[in-house]
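Lab meeting minutes (informal)
Scribe: AK
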Amino acid sequence: MNKVFKTRKINKLISLLFTCIFVFFSFSNEAVAAEVNKHNDDKPLTIGEIGGYLEGQLKGVSNIFSERRFTEPQGQGFAAERANNLADVLRGKKATVVGDNNVKNGPDRQIINRDGTITYIQDKYYKSHSETLNAAFDRDTGLFKYIDPDGKPMQLEVPADQFDKVLANMKKKISEGKVPGVTDPEKASEIVRKGKYTYQQTVNLTKAGNIDSLKYDAKNGAITAVCAMGISFALDYASCKINGTSNEEALKYAGLNSLKSGSIVFASYVISSQLAKTGLKSFLAPTAEAVAKHLSKGVQKSILETFGVKVSEKAAKDVIVKQVGNILSTQLIFDAVIIVTLTVKDVIQLFKGRISKEQLLKNLAITVASVAGAGVGSVAGAAIGTAIAPGIGTAIGKVGGGIIGGVVSGLAADAIADIFYKGDAEIMFDIISHEFQKLAEAYLVTEKEADIIVDKLKKELNENKVKDMFQSKDRNAFAVKMMEPLFTNQIKLRGKISIPTELETRNEMKQSLTGIVFIH
């Protein structure tokens, strides 16, 4: 009974966390959008946002792809490598995972110490402490098999809950002469390394919907989001300065937009990673591999290089297709989640009656085109960059190509969508223009006064005001109610006109009509 209660409690906690993530990016984005609205009313996504989302996508897909083996048998071992490595990185250590090179008896990861020396680490995470320890010894010779380039035993990183028992048994192994170059049993403490995670926690990391898995993905998501924020800020700040925006406004605009990009990337990463652990990638694999088969060798190579995947030139075609398919299936998940997170606010606005379904479809089409264009552009840019200057050219090409692809695709989609229907804002502005003309005639405003009123109206009109107008029962009345105070306030600024007296009128007429009409 107690176990059932705990399970329900954990499930509720997980649901609450997911809800908090959705609420966070939905409302934070709405707040940010309200602040930056005057800068990008006509652009669903700014250059900075596209750059930020592209950076988030590249890092996110690459990271989730590298964790593809989490769902394999003994996946907790791969999870242990990356989780322990992440913990060291967050503590400021220069730690990297190197086990993907599949070198026989090579290290899983390494840490470059401040004095320049390297600590080589082998991770072993098994259900029992005896299995964990025995996995580090050769079955035939019985000797410790993980030796670093200097001829010393690598550190054996083990589950936190098995550390004490593994350490005690390692001392016995040393006493039995099973560890080459080590005779003192007390040296076992220099070989056995206590992992940051227990065995069960690493098992949890391979699955979706538990606290350990969510915490781990949130840490990776935060790192990815920070990278995306930096790209977004730099691009939007540069764009503002090029267009003559003041430094204060440029900093505010770029800063707020980077927060928006960061929150979207963070939420997208966490959700995508959780979905990947459910086996969704396997479900998408046949479709992704079918697409990969029809791509040219050059495109396949560009995709692999874009995400830092090294494949031998002699690798079989099926191996390359499978690797490309794995990347594409991961990218499909990430792109789909980004699109959902970008449009969830519009869906909420539709249910509230603040935008039309046509506007939702238009925004969705532009978002899908921008995200897809950024993805295709990054691959094309990487291919061109690689041909010009492999390495740095690849890096510049994938980012530059992605941004250009995203911007061009978004603008093209916007132009095509405009052919089919007007957006809500255009319809509202047509009503405002019609009512403005009627008020101008009623108040007999001059051209100069009309210009002043228009300038004041521009400051009042923002995205929320337009949505309020769309939501109102009588949009014409809403427009009049919004504009009439501007007209009355402007009229009050006119100078007072006094009617001339009869004597003043008589004298002026007498002077003007002298010699023409006799006035007595």
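Next up, CB showed the second protein from the same session:
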Amino acid sequence: MVKSKAILGLAMAGGLLAGTLPFSNPTVFAKSNVVHEESVNGKLSYIGNYQTGMNNKDGGIAEIVKYNKDNQKMYLVNGAAQSVDIVSVVNMTSNNKTEFKIDTRLDITAMGKENGFASGDITSIDINTKEKIIAIAVQGATYKDNGSIVILNYDGKYIRHFEAGVQPDMVTFSHDNKYLLSANEGEPREGYAAAEAADPKGSITIIDIKKGVNKATGQTIGFDKFDSKEARAALVENGVLLKPNTTPSIDLEPEYISVSDNSHYAYVSLQEANSVATIDLKTQEIVSVKGLGFKDHNVEGNALDALKDGQVNLTTQNLYGTYMPDGLASQRIGGKQYIFTANEGDGREWADYEDTVSFRFPGTSYKIDTLLNTERDGLNPDQTYLYGGRSFSIWDADTMEQVYDSGSDFEKITGELYPKAFNSSNNKTELDSRSGKKGPEPEDIKVMKVNGKTFAFIGLERTGGIMMYDVTNVQNVKFYDYVNLRDFAGTDVSTSGDLAPEGLCLVEAKDSPTGKPLLLVANEVSGNVRIYEISGR
């Protein structure tokens, strides 16, 4: 299984030769495991921070953050506190590392009791400056109940709520402000075996707000039209991974939504199915579900460190990655719409059910987490599949053909910069601890134009930090910068700097308090929001 040719072999104290990595000065932080307040190429500058006052090794603190250009405040979903934090950043400047204080913490549980909606997990938030409203996704009281999309004003006062599907996990407004959408996962969180267990249908809620929020109407659409024997078989033939003997309407679990620039289409990541669904917002119908295929780690450019052997050791392997994106973004470039995916990967572990198997490399003691092939229709029984791609990808939105993948960049770069803490988890510094799982684990991705160029920003949930790529020409994508304010010498999650970037938010220069574009990063383990100023020159 392990091929002999290693394109990168770093022992714990080793390092790469200058010029082998895709950034201008690859030896700046080599062999160092302490926190740095500078990015590799100086394009991302730390200028502000908000600390919730909480942290948790299991995450769930600072999850999703959004910025409101009207009042220059950020709104943060704090899952552990079942709250939304409102924080003013109006006084932020380019030259100071400002520590911000909370203005208001909204108690969503109490709000639900007062206004007739059950409040389980709070998962997502978005802002509509045309209607002057905020939307939050709130899950139901149990895993089987429909959730709610709750509408607030800028001060966090309740306006109204809409029923969503089961387990709304992400909420977003269309660019033209005509629609409010939620991705409702419908996960089988109590497993499959128990008599009382349920596998709810995955769905998308579409709220039409063209006539204003007070006259808005909503509907929830599912994947029932793909349930016939013929339609299901066509999905599998197209590379959509489905649990055997399960209908698509039950098995597909919408994770994240991005809307095309013209607000005609919504693109929905179906993570466990390794697929993306396209929705026509005008007809409010699902027009396609397309599989993303597999990443061939036999190819030199797709080398990875799959062995938990205490080394940074990227090699080609007879393994195949299932992209399984979590966050996705869409952007029109050169007159064409593209989808950008953060290829995290995700298995199912519910109650006594698990679709992961520990694969042992022949002739070694090394093990790696792989998909249990018998639990996915659409896998080749003679191949071994990993969760995720350890990368980001660009796809043609019309055909879902891959245009670009970052290959082994993320592990190459982090392996050079942090060889003693390479592939650490997000709550503990342990060399190589995630190599046999999903590596750096890209979580979220956002795309924005800056000074005439288009850039993609990708958060690495496990290793930490933000990757920045110039994607102006999708045929010639270039690494641009990387910043990581994690302190690998920290003794616990309260002393280790930024841990587990979960949600990213971009702010255009014209809307920024500093007059320059910003990146906001919500770190769910360390419980803080870090703010960076972006240079696109």
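CB comment: The chain has one domain: 2-14+22-534.
No objections, moving on.
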